[in-house]
Structure formats: C-alpha cells, structure tokens
C-alpha cells in the first residue's frame, strides 16, 4: 500500500506543478484592445478636417495628409 500512496502523492504534485506552469500564461502575445492604433501604425491628421487616419490609408499631396479623396480635392481649391 505504501507504494500506491507515494504514487498518488507524486501524481498530485505533478498535476499541481503542471497547472502552476500553464495557468498564468494566458495569451502573453495577445495585447488588449486598448492599444488604439493597430500594429503600432502611425496616425496622421487630415489637413482638411483633422481626423486621424492610418498613414497607409491616408492620401498624400504636397506633403500633407488627407482622410479622403474629397478632402484632398477640396483643399486644392
Ligand atoms: Zn478629412
């Protein structure tokens, strides 16, 4: 009977250690949605209306950024 008891204790300890190792690691790479800008992309303000748009989606003219084609054209007048 002594061997069985030791086996059970070892199994319980191993189970506890495994849980302690795996439980705290809940998505270390998944940052919360409170980041704002996605992927660290730079936000630039529209020269017409001032709204912030991702640099990759902004329209550039004469070194200025615009949120849409309409604002790009309006600013040229
Ligand atoms: Zn705009």
Judged by helices, strands and strand pairing, the structural class is alpha+beta
Order of helices and strands: HEEEEH
Report the span from N to C terminus. 93 Å
- Radius of gyration based on Cα positions: 28 Å
Q: Give the strand content.
A: 15-25%
CATH level 1 name of the domain at 42-77: Alpha Beta
Task: State the CATH architecture of the domain at 42-77.
Answer: 2-Layer Sandwich
| Average pLDDT reading | 84
* Number of H- or I-type helical stretches: 2
Helix content: 25-40%
What's the number of extended β-strand segments? Answer: 4
Q: Do you know the CATH topology of the domain at 42-77?
A: Wheat Germ Agglutinin (Isolectin 2), domain 1
Low-confidence stretches: 32-37
**How would the global form be characterised?**
rod-shaped
| Sheet with most strands | 2 strands, antiparallel
Ligand types: zinc ion
Question: What's the structural blueprint in terms of helices and strands?
Answer:
Layout: H1 2-22, E1 43-45, E2 52-54, E3 59-61, E4 64-66, H2 69-75
Residues 46, 48-49, 51, 66-68, 71 line the site of zinc ion.
Which tags fit this structure?
Wheat Germ Agglutinin (Isolectin 2), domain 1, 2 helices, two-stranded antiparallel ribbon, alpha+beta, binds zinc ion, single chain, 77 residues
Care to describe what's here?
- The termini are far apart.
- It contains two helices and four strands, in the order αββββα.
- The strands form two sheets. Strands 1-2 form a two-stranded antiparallel ribbon.
- Strand 3 (59-61) and strand 4 form a beta hairpin.
- The chain is rod-shaped.
- By secondary structure, the chain is of the alpha+beta class.
- The protein has a domain at 42-77: Wheat Germ Agglutinin (Isolectin 2), domain 1, CATH 3.30.60.
- 36% of the residues lie in helices and 16% in strands.
- It binds zinc ion (ZN).
- Residues 46, 48-49, 51, 66-68, 71 line the site of zinc ion.
């Amino acid at each position: 009977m002594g061997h069985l008891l030791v086996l059970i204790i070892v199994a319980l300890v191993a189970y506890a250690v495994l849980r302690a190792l795996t439980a705290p690691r809940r998505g270390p790479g998944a940052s919360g949605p409170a980041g704002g800008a996605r992927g660290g992309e730079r936000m630039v303000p529209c020269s017409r209306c001032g709204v912030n748009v991702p640099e990759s989606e902004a329209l550039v003219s004469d070194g200025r950024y615009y949120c849409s084609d309409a604002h790009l054209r309006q600013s040229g007048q």
